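Lab notebook, design round three. We kept the backbone fixed and only want residue identities now. Task for the bench partner: fill in a sequence for the structure below.
Input structure tokens:
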């Protein structure tokens, strides 16, 4: 009887767990370990930690990153260069993409030879730096600083060395040639004064002049409409630095000989029912009847021209040079 009481007591005790509000009956002979549930204050601490970790993860995912591209730039001896300032976020997944953000930025430069524009902005933007001409013989560098939010990024700007070479002062001619004319003396770059002579029939000349320096310019004047007697042709050479040198050729146009003078006189004659005109240069032709009626008024070219007229006597005028009477049979 005593043994039975002990086994029943153990079975009953095994069905109750310490601190368990709802004991579960156990079958005879089965032993259960106690089931412990966390207290309310411990559950609260766990929730606070989870919320804090979630907030940190969200902030890290939405952190703003301020970047500049490129981070180095090169400008010419005098010129401009552009680079872009961007606000970026890192979305979930780790890849990057450009977005619009309410972040302002300012730009500054540490050298007087470089300017930056604009000096400030917001969101994505383009900044342009402009350099003055570099007159030194060595390259120079400057730093552009762009600050967005609490971040500062820099761009290193390098400018190439300037040229110390001065413009050429060479204002001499390499060659001087006048077609159909012999210069006296023979051409030399150091000789600036020449003479020449041409027949009376020549009224213009083709002057060919080449400068020694490729950066120099050549200007030729007074080579056309040459009058009888002396004519001064001027060839002015202007060097790259602006200095000038003037070459002169005094060309003497000869007077006409007796034969040339006769050949150059206008002629008027008739043959059959035509009036013929021969002139050394273009002029105008006017033909009047004896009663003063103008029957022909036209320009005539150099050389010989024929005009058909009715039978009669006419007054012929060639420009202001000649007036004569002719008969057409």
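Proposed sequence:
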């Amino acid at each position: 009887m005593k043994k039975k009481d002990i086994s029943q007591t153990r079975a009953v005790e095994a069905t109750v767990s310490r601190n368990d509000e709802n004991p579960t009956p156990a079958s005879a002979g089965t032993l259960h370990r106690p089931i412990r549930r966390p207290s309310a204050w411990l559950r609260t601490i766990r929730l606070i930690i989870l919320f804090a970790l979630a907030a940190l993860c969200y902030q890290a995912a939405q952190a703003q990153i301020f970047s500049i591209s490129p981070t180095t730039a090169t400008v010419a001896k005098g010129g401009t260069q552009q680079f872009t300032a961007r606000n970026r976020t890192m979305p979930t997944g780790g890849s990057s993409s450009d977005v619009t953000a309410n972040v302002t930025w300012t730009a500054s430069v540490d050298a007087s030879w470089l300017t930056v524009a604009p000096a400030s902005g917001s969101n994505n933007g383009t900044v342009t730096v402009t350099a003055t001409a570099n007159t030194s013989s060595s390259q120079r560098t400057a730093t552009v600083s762009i600050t967005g939010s609490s971040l500062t990024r820099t761009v290193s700007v390098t400018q190439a060395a300037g040229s110390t070479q001065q413009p050429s002062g060479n204002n001499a001619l390499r060659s001087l040639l006048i077609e159909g004319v012999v210069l006296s003396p023979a051409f030399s770059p150091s000789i600036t004064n020449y003479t020449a002579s041409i027949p009376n029939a020549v009224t213009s000349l083709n002057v060919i002049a080449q400068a020694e320096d490729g950066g120099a310019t050549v200007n030729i004047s007074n080579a056309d409409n040459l009058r009888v007697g002396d004519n001064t042709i001027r060839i002015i050479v202007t060097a790259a630095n602006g200095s000038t040198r003037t070459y002169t050729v005094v060309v003497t146009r000869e007077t006409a000989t007796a034969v040339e003078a006769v050949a150059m006189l206008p002629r008027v004659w008739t043959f059959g029912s035509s009036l013929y005109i021969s002139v050394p240069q273009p002029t105008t032709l006017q033909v009047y009847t004896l009663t003063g009626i103008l029957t022909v008024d036209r320009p005539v070219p150099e050389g010989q021209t024929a005009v058909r007229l009715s039978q009669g006597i006419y007054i012929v005028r060639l420009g202001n040079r000649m007036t004569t009477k002719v008969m057409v049979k």
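Keep this in mind before ordering anything: DSSP finds three helices and 23 strands in the chain.
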